Amino acid sequence: MPRTADILPSLRELLTTAVEAVGGAERPGQVTMAEAVHNSIKTGEHLAVQAGTGTGKSLAYLVPAVRHAIESGRTVVVSTATIALQRQLVDRDLPRLAKALKQSIGREPTFAILKGRRNYLCLHRLDTGAPEEPDDGGLFDPFAVSALGRHVKRLFEWSSETETGDRDELVPGVTDQAWRQVSVSAKECLGKDKCPFGTDCFAELARAEAGRADLVVTNHALLAIDALQGYQVLPEHDVVIIDEAHELVDRVTSVATAELTAGMVSAAVKRCGRQIAEDIVDRLEEASEGIKEIFDDLPQGRMDDLPRPLHGVLSVTRDAAHACITALGPDRSSQDLESTTARRQAVALLEEIHDTAVRVLEAFDADTGQRRDVVWLSSDMVGGNLRPPALRVAPLGVAGLLRERLFGECTTVLTSATLTLGGSFDALARQWGLPVEQRPAQKAEGTATDITPPADNDAPHWSGIDVGSPFTHEKSGILYVARHLPPPGRDGLQPAFFDELEGLVNAAGGRTLGLFSSMRAARQAADELRERLDFPILCQGEDSTSLLVSKFAEDEATCLFGTLSLWQGVDVPGSSLQLVVVDRIPFPRPDDPLASARQRAVEARGGNGFLTVAATHAALLLAQGVGRLLRSNDDKGVVAILDSRLATARYGGFLRASLPPFWTTYDQSVVRGALTRLNS
């Protein structure tokens, strides 16, 4: 039963109780953030909160979320980008918070974790076996085939032990290909009522538990699916809190991206089997052969125009897939279970093929500046194998989708340690579909009836607040920009770079996290410094990233070099990490199809495409990388940017304004001296 506000303790009382229960101390930024979140929930005004590492932002949004759920009787959804944060919330933060608040609010708050159906083991597929999967090139490798068999055998054994069927609880994990053998998409699922395992279905049990919970923890991908699909995935809710909100646009874009391969069409042919007339299936098989031939002949990269041969084969594929769907007919309840399952599996893949072909064909209907989708052809490396070419189509932007399906449906709080770029929320607000130049967030005032009346302007109302950080950046860290180095080139790292890096690592006594723009650069630097220095140097890719990070944290003399996942995924407080080195400003690659298309679209509308797209991307990633240095109040160290453009280029000011307020220097001797003293 919902409880009235006059019975519940105040937000400050609940926050104090929660902080004391976890053995912490209230921080000004945490209190300010909690009050702002509370006010946002009461008024219905969306909120963006930048909260630096060490603020205690999880409690700052969980406490007002719990209070609202208890008071209103409605579920609050908390969305994260990473599994690590999901696990932290579900395994550590929420159990402690629920226990701490039980006495104050009269009962123990409940919580659940909910993921997409593909993340749960399907007992029916485990019983009947998987259909033919699209060929990704790995099946030609006998080692891959034997590994797949071992993984599937492990999954069968695990199925009798697991209580949740959640893939993330399987340690060590299995390949995506192995997991597909025992999981289904929402379209392939028979449904709880038709499936013989419906009452024991792990996905359905998770959804049922989520429907009863005060707080539901999910991920940005499922949040996007809930917004994109025509049916409800998440339980009824009126508030969404998005942690790691700097990742939201990329995760939603990923969900909204479709691909088409010859292997998919070939697999659809096999799924159709003898369910429909052979001559109809033959048309689809011919389309598969045509796709393979044309994809192999076409140059890879972004497509500004649709080549005539590709237009032809996509039209044939679209029509052949539609003919197969029509021939399979509607889903008949009179069919036996085996037939129903086979039809569902075939239709799911056929609809994906048909819809993707249609989307690509329609992507080129508008003039270049008015297009909504970008199309490109590419091949990916998976496990050392080059996959056959895939045609991909992705939205140029998701602002309209988020504005209508997220901000238009419920009160939304977005938070991260990195949301203000160039000193403003505007860059990310545009990507989210929120109007820019909003007023700062106000502390909570008034009563629960402070909902803003409807306005003629349908733009979402929002406010932004930066609650700062408990760290004194200007006293704890130095930002060193190697202004004297030549700008980075396209031919790999230059000798002057290695000399600079050697001097810094030597002064730091190891203790270095090297963040590189590519794996090629990371390996090149690791190989070179292993020749020059005696410190242990680990490089991403030589072992699992988690194991490498553990080794790095355990030995103060060790260095760790790597690329993207290290920019955002490393949390090593203490003296093991006292130097963060960035090889170059992390602009997107010039040939990145999505970034380049977005940049061109901005320029077609008269905007600054470079600043809006490339510089914003670089600022966000650079701020995340720099944030690896200070992870606790006692940490001290140096961030070294070995890209002189940060000091000399016109956009350097925008990038520097996106970073924490470290004391800045361009003097090599000053930095080496500081590192030596820190190391002594």
Automatic annotation (TrEMBL):
Task: List, for all copies, the residue spans of the domain called Helicase ATP-binding.
Answer: 16-305, 38-282
**A single GO molecular function term of this UniProt record:** helicase activity
Q: Which EC numbers does the record give?
A: 5.6.2.3
Output this protein's name. Answer: DNA 5'-3' helicase
What taxonomic ancestry is recorded? Answer: Bacteria, Bacillati, Actinomycetota, Actinomycetes, Pseudonocardiales
Q: Domain of life, per the record?
A: Bacteria
Q: Which UniProt keywords apply?
A: ATP-binding, Helicase, Hydrolase, Nucleotide-binding
State the reactions this protein catalyses. ATP + H2O = ADP + phosphate + H(+)
Q: What does the record give as cofactor? A: [4Fe-4S] cluster
